[in-house]
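Hi L.,

You mentioned the student needs an example of a multi-chain input paired with its predicted structure. This one should do, with 376 residues in total across all chains.
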Amino acid sequence: MASALRVLGIDPGLTRCGLGVIDVARDRSASLVHVGVVRSDPESPIEQRLATIAAGIRAVLVQHQPHVVAVERVFAQHNRSSVMGTAQASGIALLLAAEHGLPAATHTPSEIKAAVTGYGAADKLQVQTMVARVLRLDALPQPADAADALALALCHAWRRGPSPAVTGNGALTPAQRAWTDAERRARR
Amino acid sequence: MASALRVLGIDPGLTRCGLGVIDVARDRSASLVHVGVVRSDPESPIEQRLATIAAGIRAVLVQHQPHVVAVERVFAQHNRSSVMGTAQASGIALLLAAEHGLPAATHTPSEIKAAVTGYGAADKLQVQTMVARVLRLDALPQPADAADALALALCHAWRRGPSPAVTGNGALTPAQRAWTDAERRARR
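Structure written out for the whole complex:
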């Protein structure tokens, strides 16, 4: 997949931070490169926990050399006690993208669900099932944070639309039509 | 001040991040080392903004070599639209402390007010006035983010209590009494 777009999706978290790397071809077919979770010890000081998360993200950036980083967007109104730690981890994910010279993007959970399943209120199992199907995995990606990171990476690649080379006057080019068809097939 | 504790206080923010460095002697007297604000352009992508904040914090860490980093604690219930950016910046501040091998601590706004003015519900002007008095500044520190960073650094140094060398059986040592007196004088 020489011309594929390699996306690192990061589902930020302090206790578990999901990391998923996929290659997405111009026809929008996707393949798994890496999936994993970085954990930090809840008993450790917060600065050490954030350093552990940063080290895990850096290792994936260095090993898999993505072209772009997509980070799940965190909302304050998610009134969980973990929301501040999640926001801190997301800041670190975005910082590391910038420090590796990579563009970054954030996507909301409903954008991710809509992009992957066609339905913004899809449940976790629907998302995981679609991720496994699109990436031709034998089992559902585990744990959920890892599956979320893969869904996010897929969302980013699929939402970004056609590359500049094929954008034009508003009508679909043959390449755009091929992508749209491939995406439709993938969502069946 | 060879034996002084050098504290970097960070008032995290994405648009303005306050940075204040002070030296606090064993008698709890304090002096200003550095105060400033790192700004990032609201028009820039979030990852570039966070990288700008990180670069500003790193520069102060390298130039002023603090012993400890204190970061203002961010709460989700502060229902401002900026709270997520503030949390992201605080995560970066804590990460950079860890990556420089420094301990970090967080303090709440009311802890800071109480430590500096003796009153947890003090207003901004009271805090700034006390910071200027304790540090023997000719004018109130400006902008507010810079004053907050200095107050935070003072809070951290004053709250940490006596050093292990003088802690003992619960009674105040002569050194502890001297500190307590000095702190009382500073709060007048």
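You could point out the following to them. The CA atoms of residues 141 and 154 of chain B lie 14 Å apart. The beta strands of chain B are 5-11, 16-24, 30-39, 68-72, 104-107.

Best wishes,
N.
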